[in-house]
């Protein structure tokens, strides 16, 4: 199975060393409000030239149920769409929206469900043709996928969160934290045929 990692920092200077390892096929990078955490077009192009696939994650601070509202979902979707478009991403590119805590069943059914309804409506009706993903607990991933609000699932590394089960067919499974080429990362394993990596538009140089 292909290996990758997700990271909160710009990887551009580290790409030659990452490629030299001959170990990683994809890198998870962020869309968000914070420009220091966010992937920018130059980094996306550098990863593309190095034949490293990119998994896009949208995350600000979704760590409690209070974060999740329909209004916030619409806001996050609009920002994610714009930032992905700025990278040159095209149809078929997945954006993984995160649930970064051990959400209860009630949280998943109500505030988180409302948030993802708003996000999915915006993403799926947008002309760019992006698709939906979720990062979170096994329970959150299972419920949102069952309700057809997401196409791809990324299981969080927290084994004590609800619904953690390595036997299920998650798109990506997050593993342990560590260091790769001086970058603090979380390791990942591809667990399906595809995960919706960035598909660059033909017009993107």
Report the radius of gyration as a whole number of Å: 16 Å
- Chain-averaged pLDDT: 97
- CATH topology name, in short, is TIM Barrel
Task: Please provide the ordered H/E string of secondary-structure elements.
Answer: EHEHEHEHHEHEEE
CATH class: Alpha Beta
- End-to-end separation in angstroms reads 30 Å
CATH superfamily: Glycosidases
CATH architecture identity? Alpha-Beta Barrel
- Shape designation: globular
Number of H/I helices: 6
**In what order do the strands lie side by side in the largest sheet?**
1-2-3-4-5-6-7-8
Count of strand segments: 8
Structural class, from helix and strand content?
A: alpha/beta
Instruction: Estimate percent helicity.
Output: 25-40%
Uncertain stretches of 5 or more adjacent residues: none
How many discrete structural domains? 1
What's the multimeric state?
single chain
Please outline the major beta sheet: 8 strands, mixed, barrel
Beta-strand content? 15-25%
Organism: Pseudomonas syringae
Domain Rv2525c-like glycoside hydrolase-like: 23-188
Pfam family, one: Rv2525c_GlyHyd-like
InterPro entries: GH, Rv2525c-like_Glyco_Hydro-like
């Amino acid at each position: 199975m292909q290996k990758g990692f997700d990271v909160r920092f710009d990887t551009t200077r580290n790409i030659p060393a990452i490629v030299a390892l001959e170990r990683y096929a994809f890198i998870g990078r962020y869309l968000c409000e914070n420009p220091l955490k966010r992937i920018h077009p130059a980094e996306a192009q550098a990863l593309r030239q190095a034949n490293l696939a990119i998994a896009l994650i949208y995350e600000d601070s979704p760590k409690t149920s209070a974060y999740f509202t329909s209004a916030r979902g619409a806001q996050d979707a609009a920002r994610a769409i714009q930032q992905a478009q700025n990278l040159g991403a095209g149809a078929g590119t997945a954006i993984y929206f995160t649930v970064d805590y051990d959400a209860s069943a009630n949280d998943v059914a109500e505030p988180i469900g409302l948030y993802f309804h708003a996000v999915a409506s915006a993403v799926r009706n947008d002309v760019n043709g992006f698709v939906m993903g979720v990062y979170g607990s096994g329970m959150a991933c299972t419920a949102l996928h069952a309700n057809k609000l997401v196409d791809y699932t990324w299981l969080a590394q927290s084994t004590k969160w609800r619904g953690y089960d390595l036997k299920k067919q998650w798109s990506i499974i997050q593993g342990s934290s560590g260091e790769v080429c001086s970058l603090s990362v979380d390791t990942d394993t591809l667990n399906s045929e595809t995960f919706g990596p960035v598909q660059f538009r033909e017009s993107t140089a």
